[in-house]
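Hi all, posting the design record for the shared folder.

TITLE: backbone redesign
STEP: 1 of 1
STRUCTURE INPUT:
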């Protein structure tokens, strides 16, 4: 079932587009948006949260566009989980969670702390008195407070050390709530997302079942990300050679970094169906041949 849909969405800031004509669905089973810094994944997440209005195209929530839907219900159903630094340092943990709850449900703070694996006694502490992993659990508890259908998680574990990351991922995997996960780390989507979309320079270059993308990438950029998979807690993969994208009008945006580029790549590749996934690459079959 589709919960959110971006339809031909172009997004940007001060009239400069950074996401170009993207169409994708947020479906059940977890969805990953994968790409390096500047790929447009966080901008797309902001649009899915209703924080950024598309320059063109629409975000659909069920059968209504976000512009027309009941925004109060939408904000209850779709909750962001950012990095733990977003917690107010002056506020006690219990107050911070209670603030997100309806007045009649404030006694649920204990239940929510237990749900995310924290000792309820931590409710009286301030964020700086907690470890990084505990703070991230508090952020998740806050997001769960209103009973959302979908969590939008932006690099929820990247600031944590490896063992703590693994425990937070276990927690997220155990929740009933659906998730859209934004990350540079393929090791994370593998655990939490049935479907993934790989973004490069504001365009979706490959979409499909996460297992297929990891087992046999069909786009050279997905292949480069997969082969640079950091261990949980590692740094984002570093690009080799030139790092700038090429404007689409002059061809494939990945052309200057692509080891498989040929003269045909001076023509922008349109997304097409290749072995059960959508790929924007003239040489997807060749990439599959080497994976
Ligand atoms: S279209 Fe060409 S340049 Fe772009 S990713 Fe495919 S092979 Fe590389």
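Okay, here is what came back for every position:
SEQUENCE:
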């Amino acid at each position: 079932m589709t919960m959110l849909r971006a339809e031909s969405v172009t997004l940007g800031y001060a009239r400069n587009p950074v996401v170009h004509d993207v169409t994708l669905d947020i479906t059940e089973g977890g969805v990953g948006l994968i790409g390096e810094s500047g790929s447009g994944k966080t901008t797309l997440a902001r649009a899915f949260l209703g924080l950024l209005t598309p320059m063109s195209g629409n975000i659909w929530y069920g059968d209504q566009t976000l512009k027309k839907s009941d925004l109060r219900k939408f904000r209850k159903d779709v909750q962001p989980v950012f990095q733990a630094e977003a917690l107010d340092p002056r506020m006690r943990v219990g107050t911070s969670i209670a603030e997100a709850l309806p007045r009649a449900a404030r006694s649920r703070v204990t239940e929510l702390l237990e749900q995310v694996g924290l000792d309820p006694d931590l409710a009286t502490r301030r964020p700086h008195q907690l470890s990084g992993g505990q703070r991230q659990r508090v952020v998740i508890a806050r997001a769960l407070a209103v009973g959302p259908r979908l969590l939008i998680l932006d690099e929820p574990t990247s600031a944590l050390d490896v063992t703590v990351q693994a425990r937070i991922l276990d927690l997220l995997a155990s929740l009933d709530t659906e998730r859209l996960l934004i990350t540079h780390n393929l090791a994370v989507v593998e655990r939490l997302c049935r479907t993934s979309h790989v973004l490069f320079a504001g365009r979706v270059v490959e979409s499909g079942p996460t297992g297929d993308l990891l087992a046999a990438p069909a786009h050279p950029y997905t292949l480069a990300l997969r082969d640079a998979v950091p261990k949980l807690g590692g740094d984002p993969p570093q690009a080799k050679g030139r790092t700038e994208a090429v404007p689409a009008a002059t061809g494939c945006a990945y052309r200057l970094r692509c080891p498989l580029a040929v003269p045909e790549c001076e023509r922008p590749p349109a997304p097409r169906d290749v072995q059960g996934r959508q790929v924007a690459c003239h040489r997807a079959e060749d990439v599959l041949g080497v994976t």
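COMMENT: The CA atoms of residues 239 and 275 lie 27 Å apart.
Let me know if anyone wants the other runs.
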